[in-house]
């Protein structure tokens, strides 16, 4: 059986500002670093065998806070990279609403229909996620794997595992520094979603509207 701990990176300054990040390589804020530390501490007693992360710095840094408890390296997995927001990257929500309002409305109401300008769609992300999950089932069978990724990546993964259409994307919450607990033993099971109790008071400070 595979046990997969699928986490989201800690907060960044752009998360706090409400700015689209996508594949821009932002770093953790001071609070995000604390969230990474808390996540690592909460998983320190878990018998983790391997740690993977998106190549983006915010995910890698979060993973390092966890990996140090187990003496493990953080291995980059490009399939975990956040959705490419394309021309939206670096822009505030208000700026996107002004420049590309119709697409933003569609993104918030029918996300499965949208391709980001010069970027990706959720279906593009799903192809990467499905490839990663298939790899994990064979490569890490019998092991516990920690994978640190991003908001859109995690939501798409949970949609696929739960058998949900991508139209349900916004019905899944993924807070900065959260972890999801999944197993695979002939089929996927979801044991816990968006676990954030380890963050304590840090959770309420970072509750943001998903972009």
Describe the structure.
With 211 residues, the chain is of the alpha/beta class. Helix content is 38%, strand content 16%. It has helices spanning 13-17, 30-42, 57-67, 93-99, 101-109, 122-139, 151-162, 201-205, and strands at 2-8, 50-53, 74-76, 144-149, 179-184, 188-195. A 6-stranded mixed beta sheet has the order 3-2-4-1-5-6, with helices on both faces. β5 and β6 form a beta hairpin. It is globular, with a radius of gyration of 16 Å. The model has no long low-confidence stretch (mean pLDDT 96). This is Phosphoglycerate mutase family protein.
How would the blueprint of this fold be written?
Elements: E1 2-8, H1 13-17, H2 30-42, E2 50-53, H3 57-67, E3 74-76, H4 93-99, H5 101-109, H6 122-139, E4 144-149, H7 151-162, E5 179-184, E6 188-195, H8 201-205
Parallel strand pairs: 1-4, 2-3, 2-4
Antiparallel strand pairs: 1-5, 5-6
Helix pairs in contact: 2-3, 4-5, 6-7
Protein name: Phosphoglycerate mutase family protein
Pfam family, one: His_Phos_1
GO molecular function: phosphatase activity
């Amino acid at each position: 059986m595979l046990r997969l701990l699928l986490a989201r990176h800690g907060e960044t300054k752009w998360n706090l500002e409400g700015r689209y990040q996508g594949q821009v390589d932002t770093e953790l804020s001071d609070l995000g670093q604390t969230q990474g530390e808390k996540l690592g501490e909460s998983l320190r007693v878990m018998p983790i065998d391997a740690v993977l992360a998106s190549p983006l710095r915010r995910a890698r840094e979060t993973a390092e806070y966890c990996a140090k408890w187990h003496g493990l390296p953080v291995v980059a997995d490009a399939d975990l990279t956040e959705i490419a927001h394309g021309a939206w990257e670096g822009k505030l929500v208000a700026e996107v609403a002004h420049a590309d309002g119709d697409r933003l409305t569609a993104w918030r109401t029918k996300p499965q229909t949208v391709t980001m300008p010069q970027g990706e769609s959720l279906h593009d992300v799903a192809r990467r996620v499905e490839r990663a999950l298939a790899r994990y089932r064979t490569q890490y069978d019998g092991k516990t794997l920690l994978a640190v990724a991003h908001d859109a990546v995690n939501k798409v993964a949970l949609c696929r595992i739960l058998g949900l259409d991508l139209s349900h994307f916004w019905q899944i919450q993924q807070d900065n520094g959260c972890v999801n607990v999944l197993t695979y033993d002939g089929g996927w099971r979801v044991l816990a979603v968006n676990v954030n109790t380890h963050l304590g008071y840090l959770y309420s400070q970072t509750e943001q509207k998903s972009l």
